[in-house]
Write a structure and sequence with these properties.
With about 300 residues, this protein is of the alpha/beta class. It is built from 9 helices and 13 strands. It is globular, with a radius of gyration of 18 Å.
């Protein structure tokens, strides 16, 4: 079944900001509200904003209720997840997407929101892996914001990456799938796991021990999730950590160890992940990955 796309946004429409994970204040969202308003959109803050339950934006019941309300509200045309952290997987099984299917809307976020990106793709719907409102005011984030705007308003996206030693040349076409490696590992075997077969997988991560990266890549390999991959686009692996006794390989080298057991093309260094240059990716969109001696190109075109 082909992946379906929510309607592109138009000026004058309403978008909701909610938090499915870590708590956030309304003050932290001031830059996002200003920028979204400049895009011609009306911003609605969900019940979870400015709520706190330990590290969460309210307890599980509140965060679920807030997200469900925005899903079901016909006057909301997109839902932006305010920030990541941890918590989306705790509420995903309680969400009811039956109304969403009849009145689809864009859902956007990254990191912990990878759970939602994959869950929606399993249901047959595209969503956006991109910069979240808490980061709208960060220095150097202009490209990330413009790419999110383009994704929300239905415009094409193209990303370039440098020629790096671990790149493996080739051309791949397929739907985009992926996101945060830790979350892809977490949802394996759950109702949110989605097939990578015939698709272009993109990966990123933050603040992980290098041996954790190896363990998660090993799991994707042993569980067969890499076996029929069309291609691999690797983004930022930021603030990696090591033990007192070094693991002996950096993040890209670890990924390469498993990727070279297959023949699909691989491009490293894409501007996707936990850095200011975090380009939006439409999960489920048809894309073309081209890796040559000059570098890599990931081009997405609305199907």
């Amino acid at each position: 079944m082909p992946v379906q796309f929510p309607p592109a946004l138009r000026p004058g429409q309403r978008v909701a900001i909610v938090s499915t994970a870590r708590k956030i204040t309304a003050e932290e969202l001031a830059p996002a509200i200003r920028i979204l308003t400049e895009w011609g959109l009306e911003v609605v803050l969900g019940e979870s904003i400015a709520q706190a339950h330990h590290q969460f934006a309210g307890d599980d019941a509140l965060r679920l209720r807030d997200f469900q309300r925005q899903l079901d509200d016909p006057g909301i045309q997109a839902i932006l997840c305010a920030r990541g952290g941890y918590g989306t997987a705790r509420i995903i099984d309680g969400l009811d997407f039956s109304t969403f299917i009849h009145q689809p809307k864009w859902i956007a976020g990254f990191s912990d929101i990878t759970v939602l990106n994959c869950h929606l793709l399993r249901l047959g719907w595209a969503s956006i892996h991109g910069v979240m409102p808490v980061l709208f005011g960060q220095a150097g984030g202009e490209m990330a914001l413009e790419s999110l705007r383009r994704a929300l308003f239905g415009e094409a996206l193209v990303y370039m990456a440098p020629a790096l030693p671990l790149n493996r040349p080739g051309v791949a076409s397929g739907e985009l799938v992926g996101g945060n490696l830790s979350l892809l590992h977490t949802i394996t075997g759950t109702a949110s796991q989605v097939s990578f077969a015939g698709r272009i997988l993109f990966l990123e991560d933050l603040d992980e021990y290098l041996y954790h990266i190896d363990r998660m890549m090993l799991h994707l390999h042993r569980s067969g999730q890499l076996h029929k991959l069309a291609g691999l686009a690797v983004g930022h692996f930021s603030q990696m950590r090591d033990n007192t006794v070094p693991f002996g390989a950096e993040a890209y080298e670890i990924i390469d160890y498993y990727a070279r057991q297959y023949s699909f093309p691989v491009g490293y260094g894409f501007p996707i992940g936990h850095e200011p240059t975090n380009g939006a990716v439409v999960v489920g969109q048809q894309a073309r990955l081209t890796v040559t001696a000059e570098g890599s190109r990931l081009e997405t075109v609305r199907s």
